[in-house]
């Protein structure tokens, strides 16, 4: 049981690290496209992540929702 718990914790930690890496990649893309601005002196701070979250929530999610409602997922 201890071995299973240890393995599960390691798997969860690995998944969490992959999620954080994905978030940073998305934020990098938003910076590159000018959707959010990064202060070079601050690096990746809470404000940068909040700006990215706001952009995704306010601009990307509604667009994806609209596309899905119009059946865009059926196009190939």
Please, could you describe this protein's structure?
The chain is mostly helical. Helices cover 72% and strands 0% of the residues. The protein contains 2 helices and no strands. The chain has helices at residues 2-32, 46-69. It is flat and about 50 Å long.
Layout of helices and strands:
Layout (H helix, E strand, L loop, with lengths): L1 H31 L13 H24 L7
List keywords for this structure.
76 residues; mainly alpha; 2 helices; 0% strand
Using the CA coordinates, give the radius of gyration. Answer: 18 Å
Described by the principal axes of the CA atoms, the overall outline is flat
Largest sheet composition: none
Fraction in helix: over 70%
Instruction: Give me the count of strands.
Output: 0
Mean pLDDT over the full residue set: 90
Classification by helices and strands: mainly alpha
Note the gap between the termini. 47 Å
Low-confidence stretches: none
What kind of assembly state do the chains in view correspond to?
single chain
Strand content: under 5%
- Counting DSSP H or I runs of 4 or more residues, the number of helices is 2
What order do the helices and strands follow? HH
């Amino acid at each position: 049981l201890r071995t299973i718990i240890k393995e599960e914790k390691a798997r969860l930690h690995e998944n969490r690290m992959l999620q954080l890496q994905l978030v940073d990649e998305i934020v990098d893309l938003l910076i590159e496209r000018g959707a959010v601005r990064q202060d070079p002196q601050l690096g990746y701070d809470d404000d940068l992540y909040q700006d990215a979250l706001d952009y995704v929530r306010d601009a990307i999610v509604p667009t994806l929702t609209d596309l899905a409602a119009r059946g865009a997922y059926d196009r190939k």
